[in-house]
Write a structure and sequence with these properties.
The complex is a heterodimer of chains A (384) and B (438).
Chain A: E1 5-8, E2 20-24, E3 28-32, H1 34-94, E4 98-103, E5 108-113, H2 118-121, E6 128-132, E7 136-142, H3 149-166, E8 168-169, E9 173-177, E10 181-186, H4 198-212, E11 218-222, H5 230-248, E12 251-255, E13 269-280, E14 283-292, H6 300-306, H7 311-339, H8 344-355, H9 363-380
Parallel strand pairs in A: 4-9, 7-12, 7-13, 10-11, 11-12
Antiparallel strand pairs in A: 1-3, 2-3, 4-8, 5-6, 5-9, 13-14
Chain B: H1 2-5, H2 9-20, E1 24-30, E2 33-37, H3 38-48, E3 53-55, E4 64-70, H4 74-83, E5 87-93, E6 106-112, E7 124-131, E8 134-141, E9 146-153, H5 157-161, E10 166-172, H6 179-184, E11 188-192, H7 194-206, H8 221-238, E12 249-250, E13 257-258, H9 260-265, H10 280-284, H11 290-301, H12 307-322, H13 324-335, H14 340-348, H15 354-375, H16 380-388, H17 393-402, H18 423-437
Parallel strand pairs in B: 1-5, 7-10, 9-12, 10-11
Antiparallel strand pairs in B: 1-2, 2-4, 3-4, 5-6, 7-8, 8-9
Helix pairs in contact in B: 7-8, 13-15, 14-15, 15-17
Classes of the chains: A alpha/beta (384), B alpha/beta (438).
Chain lengths: 384, 438
Amino acid sequence: MGYFIEVTKPNLKLVPKYFKRRQTLSSSERFTTDYLKSLEEEITTLRERSNHLEYELFCNLRERVLEGLERVAKNSLVLAELDFLLGMSKVVEEKNWCEVEFTEGIDTLIEEGRNPIMEETIRDFVPNDTRFSEEERVLIITGPNMAGKSSYIRQVALIFLLAQMCGFAPARKVRLGVADALLTRIGSGDYLPLGISTFLNEMLDVSNVINNATKKSLVILDEIGRGTSTYDGISIAKAVLEYLGERVGCRVLCATHFLELTELGKKRGFKNYHMGVERDGGGVRFLYRLVEGVGRESFGIEVAKMAGIPQEVVKKAEEHLRRLREGNTIRVLEEAYQRSGEDEEIKEVLRELLSLQIERMTPLEALIYLAKLKEKVLGLKTKL
Amino acid sequence: MEERETLTPMLAQYHSLKEKYKDCILLFRLGDFYEMFYEDAKIGSKVLGIALTSRPAGKGRERIPMCGVPYHSVQSYLQRLVMKGYKVALCEQLEEASKGKKIVRREVVRVITPGTYFERSSEGLLSLIRKGKRFFLAYVNLATGDFWTFSCKEDELLGELSKYNFKEILTLKGTEVPEEVSKLFEFYLTELDWEFLREGLERIKGEKGIVSPRVLGVEEEEYLMALALAYNYVKKTQKDFLPFLRKPKVFRGKFMRIDYRAQRSLELVKNQEGRENYTLLWAINRTLTPMGKRLLKIKILNPLLDLREIEKVKSSVKELLRRRDLRLELERVLKEMPDLDRLISRISSNISTPRDFILLKNSLKGIKKVGKILKNLSSERFRELLNSLEEVGDLIEVIEKVLVEEPPIHLKEGGLVKEGTHKELDLMRERIRELEGR
């Protein structure tokens, strides 16, 4: 706005002649004089010059700073590294991680390991142990859905990763042999963008695992062989586990529904575990604890109950399950009965078999019955 | 050429500029507006939701489509165009309009692309050179100054790519990018020619002093090619705005292999929705600075194999656990630290304000404190860090000497420089005060 002399309206009569009118406002007028004008001009010029000079000085400063930026950038790396180490020390202390002891080979012992992600979201997280050795390289983990299989096998992978990242891990005690790779086949919807079938996807993952695993790798398999028919699935899963366990000799954690895979537990290098579940009245209680041996039941219906599926549906499901369990053998016998035509003697044998209540027999009774049956059938041999 | 002659001079100028930036939306500065013409105007009005108008193009010509945005809010429009995947060429007037002059000089001063919008985005770009079953890549992030090269086998490519934040991939024309890459990642592909590469190699040799891959400790020329593509691209697009880049190096080492599938299914740094919550990073991150967090991410994705290296980290963490006093001191300093990498990027580009220098000065003072704390720590890793710490006292001094503690944002309106810095300035200021006092 510049410099001026402001005179309110009542005082206007006092204004001397050499005042020059600059601006008229509602209640006052502004004047300037020659002297004031010359002052203003000088100030404006000085301002422009000094502002320009300041800008120049600033540009010089910038140049000097630019020359030093390489050094600042190096220091930034130091800060980042320090911040990383400080952050790790904080989480180690806060979450009570333990120092990791490293061994040659694949021997591994994790006592009371915890899943660092789950631990943040679940109140009473249950820790679990993990053991790998030459005798127990492939751990097959069965157990119902929701019992914590997936969380457990991920936990082991994360403990390895953290141990090799900072030498500490969320557990009470860890001794492990370094893993050169974390290879996983974990089913989830993350392949949708590729637009290939679930099963093909799964097989691509599996082939990736097989092609890259070495003796020192850690392999995590969650429910492999699911995207195809049961028999295909079991056969493939079994073959993959045998290959990894016997040919590659790497450490494998395999969570599965297929009880058939637990047959592998008899072999050297394989070991069965399951996630503990307790019957609790009509329902079940998940213990989230890893137990040696095979988990026999799937508790699918109990889980359905817990999820609030109506009583009527659950009941029906139980009925279907009973029939399915008996189904396979009975269907074979029934078909044979149909095909047996008019021969009464054959029909007789089949009728007897169909009405047989094996679950009520002792093993000895069953054996005796089997021997009798064999005799009978041998007598019929020509007809069959 | 005859056709050109009937165009208005301004549009003729537009055409000759647009010719050089065919794959970009050209924002053409006209006074207080940036204007788009022809197809650009149609795209611009649609993407930005602004009115499409038209203007005369010359004698006997049809009117042409046009739309524009005011210069003072150009950033928000720019951002929308770039996020939609367009490259935007920003054309400025390089001289004041004055009477008698027919037309002012205009030049494209910068091209903003999805992978180079460093002031608004933290995403960078990757260049990719293929040699049979092996890939050589370079990563540039203008927001943080990261610049390095690495290589991987074909079956490791997805895993390597998913470790990076990138919005753009550069390749040579004719390079076959595996189909999976374009299906699993969202990015814009720019194909460049051999001439562009040749020019880049010249530049990387001349300006960065990398005359051979041996300078970087490797044999393969392809590392250099990847660096050259990336460097020439950022150089040509950012021009005078190109921020500081670190000296390129080769990122390699013995790391635990964690491929794409494992990274995704274990939710290490991104969950299934691509976000950070409920990931390992989310669970264990206790860093105090953005630099520290970025490094933590890299460490999670690259666990070590070498026992000596792991022991080094372990013993330094152990020492920190013992030295609670030093930890608290360190914490106090780090808490006050800004994103130093981004600050460096802003200062080195033409987009800094005087306040950034004050911020830098305060950070440098923090670094001095860090140096003192480090002297009290004895494990090997800390010794190494102390040794690589650079002296910055001169920079603190020079900023402190010149700049006032709370400078204005504008550069050309005075009030930046401290009293007593420059004699002539002091005299002028005194004279102004004196005149004002009369």
